[in-house]
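INFO  loader      accepted 1 record
INFO  loader      residues=266
INFO  predictor   begin
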Amino acid sequence: MRFLTAKRRHRAARPALLVLALLLMGALYAAVAPAARVSADTGNSQQVAEGKALFQVTCSSCHGMNGEGTSQGPSLVGVGAAAANFQVSTGRMPMANPGAQAPRKQNTYTDEEIAALAAFVASLGPGPAIPTEDQYSGEGLSPDELAKGGELFRTNCSACHNFEGAGGALPNGKYAPSLVGVSGQRIWEAMRTGPQQMPVFSSGALPDEDVRAIVGYLDTLHAQPSSGIAFGGLGPVAEGLFAWIIGIGGICLIAVWIAAKGARAR
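INFO  predictor   done
INFO  writer      dumping tokens
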């Protein structure tokens, strides 16, 4: 009997030791991990709280009290701080009146309020963060990199924004805004977040060095003085059509005038 009792105790000892070890590991993790998390969040939690309070006053009527979305506006979970920074800093949000597209207008928020709103939106779910200057700056690029930026822009962007980035009309009352004078940060944020009808260009499709090349190309293009009549930068086909209409049309009018004058002289 003693032998059996000892054997049973010996078999039960192993699971007991395993449970004890798990408890010790859990206690150790609870003691260490929360402390690290709190220390990393010390400078951000207050900003998130301020952003949430401002969001619930100015944005919740369309996006819900916690950014979950409503019938009036989409969910903001996972859009990231870059999306909030882009929409608010360009004055597109809050949107005063519903329409086909939110227009760019004067921003009414301070930099601190925009940063707080962006921090709150970022806390709702993982998404693109506000970029640093080295991610979007087009300064210091070589001629080859600028040429690559032009090729990338014409391939991916000119269909909507036209060859010079002057903007253009889209179906259903929407439009691609002009990129003249738009900062590299705004271009980066728009490409990464896809505002409204614009597609999202992820870092896998266009890495930051390609975005920098596009920004550098646009900065160089818009800094050049326009020679002659640009026709809005519609491209060689449209400009050639205008030239043909004006040139051939003018010649036809002159020919008709000469013929009419000769007929009167007779």
